[in-house]
Write a structure and sequence with these properties.
Length: 165
């Protein structure tokens, strides 16, 4: 009770645990307006991750569970260069998309292989371990995904926009 858990990238606080171990969360209007939470059903598969502590090894990118918006899957599957996931982002999030930078998709921290600014799209190369341990392999074109942009990039853009001399 009271612990933070990232549920498909959305930082939520455990409000209750039923006798079978099912976790229950409250979602405020801000979370519902910026995430895919409202579309989840009892059978929906989600990615779960516990909160990091000061003793946690950070084996990837730093993410907070603060979703910036919802992207839409354009394509997902294997091709000539392995498995790639292409996502169309809201225009307002494109300024945070940097080639070889990071982005969190449904709670999975990933490296951007390509950024297509005119199409408002990013492409991500997925490795077998990511496909096996997350819900990303099951995404279909048109599916909504929770997007959290890199916190450091957001801080730099904010500073340049508001405080640059």
């Amino acid at each position: 009770m009271g612990e933070s858990v990232a549920v498909s990238g959305c930082c939520l606080t455990v409000a209750a645990i039923d006798p079978t171990g099912i976790l229950e969360f409250d979602a405020v209007p801000e979370s519902l307006s910026k995430t895919t939470i409202g579309s989840w059903r009892p059978e929906s598969r989600v990615n779960l991750e516990h909160a990091a502590t000061p003793n946690t090894l950070l084996g990837g990118h730093v993410v907070q569970g603060h979703v910036d918006g919802v992207g839409r899957v354009v394509s997902n599957g294997s091709g000539g260069h392995g498995w790639t996931l292409c996502i169309e982002l809201p225009a307002a999030l494109m300024e945070y998309a940097t080639p070889k930078g990071s982005m969190c998709v449904d709670g999975v921290s990933l490296t951007l292989a390509a950024v297509d600014v005119p199409r408002h799209a990013v492409e991500i190369a997925l490795i077998p371990a990511t496909l096996d341990q997350t819900t990303l392999a099951s995404l279909k074109p048109g599916d909504g995904v929770n997007i959290e942009c890199d916190a450091m990039v957001k801080a730099v853009v904010h500073w340049l926009r508001n405080y640059r001399p």
